[in-house]
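pinned: reference chain
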Amino acid sequence: MDSFTNVHEAIAHVDTALELILTDRNLHTLPKEIAQLVNLEVLNISINELRKLPSWLFDLKKLRVLDISCTSMDDIPDAIGDLLALEELILGGFDGFTHLPETLGKLTRLRKLDLTDANSLLSLPECLSSMPSIEELHLVRTSALVNVNDAINKLPKLRKLVIDDISLTSLATKPELWNGMQSLTLARTEITHLPDWIGSLQLLEELYIDNNNNLTAIPPEIGNLMSLKVLDIELYKPLTIPNSLGKLIQLERLVLTRFGFTAIPKWIFDLSSLRSLSLGLNPIEYVSYDLSSLQKLEKLYFGYNPRLASQREQIETWLPNCAIVLTPAAAKATASPLEQSIAMENPTSHNITNLTFKTSRNSSGPLTWPELGSIEMWAALDSMKKTEVSQALAKAMGPHVYALKPTSKQHLPRLKDTNSGLVFIAIAGGSFSMGLNNSEKKELIKLTRKWSEESQMHVKDLQNFASPSHEVSVPAFLCLEMPIKPSQGIETIPALQTTRDICLFDPFTAVCYAKRSGARLLSEAEWEYVARQGGSKSWLTIKEHPITHNLPKYFKDTLAKGGVGGEGDMFGLRGLGWGTWVEDGWHDSYEGAPIDGSAWEPKELPEMIRSGAFLSWPWQMDGEALLLHVAHREHQVNRNFPILLARDLPVNR
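pinned: its C-alpha cells
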C-alpha cells in the first residue's frame, strides 16, 4: 500500500496513493486536492480543528478506513452513508455531536465502529441492529449514552466489544448473538457482578475486567473459557479468585492486580501455556519452587515488592529465560535478566554492552556547547550563528541526524534522528526554582477553597511532596519534541496505544524503548524546567489560572494543535500535559534533593510520573485539574504513562 503523510506527495502518485495520514496537522480545512485521490482507501484526518467535513469527501468511494475523531464536529453528516466501501469508522474525541445518522445503515461493509471519547453522544442509532457486518465496537468514555445495554443486545455478530469508563451497572440476560465473541473489555464500569453466562462464550480469547470498583466476586464459570488466551483483572480492592481458573490451559497472559495475594495461588502453576504473568501490587511474601513449572514464561512482573528482593536470584535460576520485573532489586555486579533480555532481543540497535537503568547523564557535553549554556546566551546569537550551531550539533551526533526548521520562540536547534524517527530539541541550560513556592501554595489553597474535599487533600499532599522549593541548575540537554506516538517505531516493543495518538508505557517497556532509542528518561528536574518554560510558569495551560480557563476547549485545542507549545513556546515542546515517567526514585519531599538537575537515586525501573492531567480527562472531579500544575508529582509503579525522552549533548564537536 502506498502511504503518504503529505498531500502534494500523494497527488504526485495519484493513481497509486491508497493511504493518507494527516493527523495532528493544525488543519482548519481539508485541502481540496485530496478529492483527486480517487483510489484512496485509508484517510486519517483526526486531531484537526475542522468542525465540518467538505461535501467532496464523500465522493471518495473506495475509502475503507476513515478516522475523523477529534475534529471538533457538532454533527455527523448524512452523506457519510454514501461511503459504501467503508469497513472502519472512527468518530468521537470530544466532538460535540449528540446523534449518529441513520444513514450509517447503508454501510453494509462496516466492520469496526470506534466511538472512543464521543462524550456528547446520547444514543446509538437503531440502524446498528440491522448491520450484520459490524464485528467490533468501541464505547470508551461515551458517558452520555443512555441505551448502552439495549444497543449491545441488538448488535449482530459482534466479535470484539470494548466498554470502558461508562456507567454500566449490569449485564442481564445473555445477548442472543454473542456466541461468536472473541474479545470483551469491561473496564471502569459500575458493574457489581459478572453474570455466570460469560463462561459460555466458548470462542472468547481475551477478557479484560479492569477497575470495576463495585465488583463483589469473580464467577467460577470463567474457568470454562477454554479458548481464553488473555485474562486481565485489575482491581482496587482484594477479591477471592476461584481455583477454576486453573483450567484455562490455553491462557498465555494473566494479569491479577491488587488481589491481596501473600503467595502466588497454586492454580496458576497449572497454566502450562502462560507466557506473561503480572502480579503487581500484591503483598507476596514468598515464591515457592512450583513457579519453575511455568517454563514458557517470558515476562514475570511483581512490581515494587521489597519482600521478594532477596529471592530474585533464586527465581532467575528457576526461570532462566524469563525477564523478571521486581523492584527494588538486590545489588549484584552482573547484568540483570531485564538488562540481558534487552541485549538479546536487539543486540545491534545500540551499544548496550554496559547497560544500566540508572541515569547515564554526561555532564561534559554541555561544556562543548557554550552557546546553549543559558537561554540568554542563545538569544544573544544572530540567526546565522544559531543555524551554524544547529548544523554542527547535528553533525556531531552522527550521519543519521540532521537539523530541522526550528519551531520554538528562541529558534533552538531541532534535530531528527533518522534511525529512530524521533525529533529532539536542544534545551538551553538555566537555573530555576523547583517545587511549590509560597505564593503557589497560597494560590492553590485559594483556588480549591470551594472545590471538593478530595482536591483540598490533594493540595495538602502536594505541599509536602513538592517542598521545599529549591534552586536547581539544569545543564543543556536534548529533549524529545513530544511524547512517543504510535507511528514512531513502536511496533518492535509492545505498548498500550491510545486513540489520542499517544503511546502509554508500563515501566518495563518505557526503559526498553528508551534504551533501544539510544536515549534515557528525563530527570524530574529537567521535566519541571521545561514545564516551567525555564522560569516561574505555574500551570500547563494557556492561561495561568485554570479556574478561569475553558478546560473543554483547552483540551480540544490540545488535540488539534498537538499540545501546549509549538510556535511561540520557549522551547517548542508539545504535550507536556500528558505526563511522563521520569528517572528519579520516589521521595516524599525534596529534602536532600540534588541541585544539579540530575536524577535523584534513579531506580532500575521508573516509579514516578510528572503531570498526566490529559490522561484523566474528562475530569471525574475537580481535583484532577490540579494535575495541570507543573509542580505535580506522583508515585506510581504499576500503571501506564507516556514517555518523553532525553539525550545528552555530544562531548566532541
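why pinned: Residues 330-359, 542-550, 555-568 have pLDDT under 50 and may be disordered. Residues 40 and 229 are 36 Å apart (CA to CA).
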